[in-house]
Amino acid sequence: MKRTWIHHAIIVNEGRRFAGSVVIEGEKIQEVIEGDGAPAAVCDEQIDAQGCFLLPGVIDDHVHFRDPGLTHKADMATETAAAAAGGVTSFMDMPNCNPQTTTLEALENKFKDAATKCIVNYSFYFGATNNNADQLKTLDKTHVCGVKLFMGASTGNMLVDRMEALKKIFSEAGMLIATHCEDQQIIRENTERFKQQYGEDLDISFHPLIRSEEACYHSSALAVQLAKETGARLHILHISTARELGLLEDRPLHEKKITAEACVSHLMFCDEDYAQFGARIKCNPSIKTKADRDALRKALTTNLIDVIATDHAPHLLSEKEGGALKAVSGMPTLQFSLVSIYELVHEGILSIEQLVQKMCHAPAQLYQISQRGFIRPGYQADLVLLNPHKEWTVTTDCIESKCGWSPMEGRTFHAQVEKTFVNGTAVYENGKVNKAHRGQALRFER
User: Fold this and answer.
1) Pairing of strands 53-56, 45-48
2) Which of 71, 249, 264, 359 is most buried (CB neighbours < 10 A)?
3) Neighbour tally for 165: CB within 10 Å
């Protein structure tokens, strides 16, 4: 088997940073060497990582790759190319495609399709509906990352709004339930009130007023209540308000059954940015105030927020035209997630160790992913070389996502992904993606 020696790196792993090197043999990490030590045996390839951080591959627990059925704007091949270019080595994809992933057949078809298309590692959520709770017990917990529950309507309209169905899902899922929390009744009432006052074509600035703090908090509070009543394993996706943080506990991940995610969109933007970016930053839940954004950033330094993800959701720019009610919600951010959060490190808001905890270690722990998320001998060699000394600006020509745009265009970053390894193979280097590589289905130790 091929042996690769990555040396002169600054390794960031399990709360530490240290000078050292890593030996990859085949698909796995063979050695982690602290200091200037040499490998136990001769290596076929040497990579000088002088000045770079060597990190575990980023694990994104929240993406929408639009495959199948919506592939005019994204598909598994193009979006995993974006992942590879951004240092993301594993992803978990949502069920609101076409057909929706709400049957065992649709779920297995996605896994089969992924095996022929995905450059990085993959898993898929099973979508809960008002009528399919009986199927939850049949899911293979070692194969499926979790159950996705829309407690608020978003792209694909998979809203579960019957209390009887919600209670059954929380009681019988038997695995992690990942929730989109927005109260649909509050959203409807806000929409009608603003339309009566300001007309049918509401400006984008109304989006965070329609999909308001109250709508988020009310729904998240209900999810927490149901989880506590049933003992369910709840993971609240894309927390967007400071108020919701009061529902969470500042305790180590392994002590909690209720966890939370923050997304790049809510960490990098605030409502003041609608004036510049318009509907390009329209997403559900909406981007809220600067105070909300700053509270989320602060929560990353505690155990209130457990993971950072993207909610990567590509649309064509033509679909993003219009205001609060006409433009579709969602934005592509996957390729730039690691370098975006590194900006918080650059600004002194986070440490690089905290970044690795929230983007690499915690997703692996939270989902109980087998042999990934850490730099350890015997683990799969999913690794990223990040150069923290390379300033660069995002241009359209570097975007790998099929939709061809990003709200990060024109933004200058202070770190750049140099190489991404998936299962021991360099899938991104010298600015190019190895599109012939195929990732593996994630396995879960449950």
Assistant:
1) unpaired
2) 359
3) 17
Mean pLDDT for 162-170 is: 94
- CA-based max dimension of the chain: 74
Q: How many residues does the chain have?
A: 446
pLDDT tens per residue across span 28-43: 999 999 999 999 999 9
Partner residues linked to 5 by β-bridges: 23, 46
Give the predicted TM-score (pTM) of the model.
0.98
Q: What is the pLDDT of residue 161?
A: 86
Count the neighbouring beta carbons within 10 Å of the beta carbon of residue 156: 17
pLDDT at 156 over 70: no
- Looking at residue 158, its pLDDT comes to 85
Q: Please, which contacts does 246-254 make with residues 24 or more away whose CB atoms are closer than 8 Å?
A: 247/217, 247/220, 247/221, 248/299, 248/304, 248/305, 249/303, 249/304, 250/302, 250/303, 250/304, 251/303, 252/303, 253/303, 253/306, 253/362, 253/365, 253/366, 254/365
Rounded-to-integer distance, Cα 308 and Cα 261, Å: 6
Whose CA is closest to 285, among 62, 133, 19?
62
**In this structure, what token pair is assigned to residue 365?**
């722990």
pLDDT at 292: 98
From 380, 392, 367, select the one nearest 143 (Cα to Cα): 367
Residues 6+ apart with CB under 8 A from 194: 202, 206, 209, 210
Please check whether residue 9 is in contact with residue 356, taking contact to mean a CB–CB distance below 8 angstroms: no
Which of 46, 49, 27, 50 is closest to 38 using CA atoms? 46
